[in-house]
Amino acid sequence: MAYVEWEIIAREFGNCNCDYGCPCQFNALPTHGNCQAVVGYDISAGHFGDTQLDGLRAVYIGKWPGAVHEGNGEMQVIIDERADDAQREALRKILYGEETDPGTTVWNVFMTTITKVHDPLYAQIEFEVDIDARRAHLRVPNLIEGSGEPIRNPVTGAEHRARIELPNGFEYTVAEMGSGTSTSSAAIPMELSDSYGQFAHLHLSTHGVVR
Q1: Could you tell me how far CA 123 lies from the centroid of its own chain?
Q2: Can you name the residues that pair with 152 across neighbouring β-strands?
Q3: φ and ψ at residue 133, rounded to 5 degrees
Q4: Would you give per-residue pLDDT tens digits along the chain (211 residues)?
């Protein structure tokens, strides 16, 4: 099957309800038996066919009653209000896992586990992220508040640095680990505090992770 060719280079901050490290990264069950996550994206360069996506932002909110692979999840995406109609539809398709080789991106895989898709929202997205410093701030006025910071040594308070490398992953190759705190009052409400934070450079396309 022929798909629309798309590609994005972006920075990501993700925060889920699991402990630092997140068992999902190691094919294990989630810390608390369920999954809740808020993820922000800042696209530095990208296109969907002839539609340019440079400089746009997006947020993905997902929730599953058990492990992600067990299904029955729900999701909602928030797309940068600065996007025009063509860009909005392009980002929606990418984040819904459409126009993608099956199983090759995190969004395509997640979509196979979703049973409830909330309508996308178009809003102002404030997003700052420093991957190496493990710091981020994500805000969608009246909907999302999120922040990320380094994990701290419980004895000395010093910043602790750890990474996860997934040579064959469907989202990133290397991600910096940190601590995240987020609240959502969108269609999927949640409150996360001092839980798994992920900071990564993304390079994804129609055919999966570009390495």
Answers
A1: 17
A2: 159
A3: -85, -10
A4: 789 999 999 999 999 999 999 999 999 999 999 999 999 999 999 999 999 999 999 999 999 999 999 999 999 999 999 999 999 999 999 999 999 999 999 999 999 999 999 999 999 999 999 999 999 999 999 999 999 999 999 999 999 999 999 999 999 999 999 999 999 999 999 999 999 999 999 999 999 999 9
Cα separations (Å) of 148 from 9, 37, 195? 21, 13, 10
| 8 Å CB contact between 208 and 105 | yes
For the record, the structure tokens of 53 come out as: 């996506």
* Distance (Å, whole) CA 67 – CA 82: 34
Count of Cβ atoms closer than 10 Å to residue 175 Cβ:
24
Q: Which residue has the tokens 């392009």?
A: 90
Domain boundaries, the chain: 6-209
In whole angstroms, give the CA distance from residue 10 to residue 54: 9
- The whole-angstrom separation of Cα 134 and Cα 198 is 8
**Closest by alpha carbon to 179, among 141, 146, 143, 144?**
146
